[in-house]
Write a structure and sequence with these properties.
Elements: E1 2-4, E2 17-19, E3 22-24, H1 31-42, H2 56-59, H3 65-80, H4 105-111, H5 124-143, E4 148-151, H6 173-183, E5 189-193, H7 200-206, E6 212-219, E7 244-249, H8 255-272, E8 276-281, H9 298-309, E9 315-319, H10 325-341
Parallel strand pairs: 1-4, 4-9, 5-6, 5-8, 6-7, 8-9
Antiparallel strand pairs: 2-3
Helix pairs in contact: 1-10, 3-4, 5-6, 8-9, 9-10
This protein binds zinc ion.
């Protein structure tokens, strides 16, 4: 299994996140990437390869042109206002407000925000493009015949919607990968999101499509970020009806319950007869994750990697969350090793 990763990830390193009424160092930090690279190297995985330059063709099929223009220009517009801090949304286009892009950068930030904890820095856009390029390059490995690949993306992507950023995400790496697989001839692609948080951005992008099945296991949105999406009755719309499946679970959920949901999810993916599987891999389901509430242990990650591997689908793992930073490398490695151990 090849790993695609870019050192450009370190170009996105905001100083601050508003959390619990305080400006804190963001949970989503560059060391996360380092721990994963170290753990894979220590276990004999091949060294990461650099991605190719990002091809915007597939990106433009999952994100709006206005939104991509905003991401590209956000920092320069912010800087032109003379602000000294990092660009963060304040007012948002909430219920009963106009859904119309303002001219002012503060307005634009709020219009395109799905959440307000995520700052934009001078070099965020470069990191975002390189992260998406990792997913795209890894997808093209599958298109060329590899049976599996790992895109070590940072920043993560699954909270990025068609035209929304937030939850540490800007471009939806898993969605871009799924689109790449479709464009290369896969008739159906499944996305399995095992991050603790609901993949609200991925659901948003594919909600009215039946060529990409979206299945997510996550903290019940009544209790967990992103709060406003991820309930079981969200099943898709129009042609997408029946192709969006959510498994929200309550605080304290242990592996025994979580793994039953995973088995059910994998059965649904089998019944869909997907040509390829994209796994949105967040390891914030870990029992000691600081911002999550499931109770998976380190060995559980090996177990579920194995369960995914036994389904024998061409599989692309795309890195999402995981904030128990010192354990993120081992937990990620465990999933990938479990998967490989199940391969024929
Ligand atoms: Zn997460």
């Amino acid at each position: 299994m090849k790993t695609i990763a870019s050192p450009d990830h370190a170009l996105h390193f905001p100083k601050a996140e508003l959390s619990g009424g305080q400006l804190i160092r963001p949970y989503e930090c560059p060391e996360r990437w380092d721990y994963i690279v170290e753990a894979l190297a220590a276990s004999g995985f091949s060294a990461p390869q650099l991605p190719n330059a990002l091809d915007m063709a597939s990106v433009a099929k999952v994100h709006g042109a206005d939104y991509l223009r905003f991401l590209e220009q956000a920092w320069s517009l912010w800087e032109a206002e003379g602000y000294e801090g990092e660009a963060m949304p304040m007012a948002v286009a909430a219920r009963r407000m106009q859904q119309r892009e303002p001219e002012n950068i503060n307005g634009k930030l709020g219009y395109f925000a799905g959440a307000t904890e995520t700052a934009i820095t001078p070099t965020t856009w470069q990191a975002v493009q390189s992260s998406a390029a990792c997913a795209q390059t890894a997808a093209r490995l599958l298109n060329a015949g590899d049976s599996s690949a790992f895109a070590l993306c940072r920043p993560p992507g699954h909270h990025a919607g068609y035209d929304l950023f937030g939850g540490y995400c800007f471009m939806n790496n898993a969605a871009i990968a799924a689109q790449e697989l479709r464009d290369a001839g896969a008739s159906k692609v499944a996305i399995l999101d095992v991050d603790f948080h609901h993949g609200n951005g991925t659901q948003d992008i594919f909600y009215e499509r039946n060529d990409v099945l979206f299945v997510s296991l996550h903290g019940n949105p009544g209790h967990a970020f992103p709060y406003f999406l991820g309930y079981a009755d969200e099943t898709g719309k129009g042609e997408g009806e029946g192709y969006n499946i959510n498994y929200p679970m309550m605080p304290g959920t242990p592996y025994s319950v979580w793994s039953d949901a995973l088995t059910h999810a994998l059965d649904r993916i089998d019944q869909y007869f997907a040509d390829a599987l994209v796994v949105s891999l967040g390891v914030d389901t870990f029992e000691r994750d600081p911002i999550s509430f499931f109770k998976l242990t380190g060995d559980d990650f090996t177990r579920y990697g194995h369960a995914i591997g036994k389904r024998s689908l061409p599989t692309l793992f795309v890195m999402e969350g995981g904030y128990a930073v010192e354990e993120i490398g081992v937990n990620t490695r465990n999933v990938l090793q479990g998967f490989l151990d199940a391969q024929p």
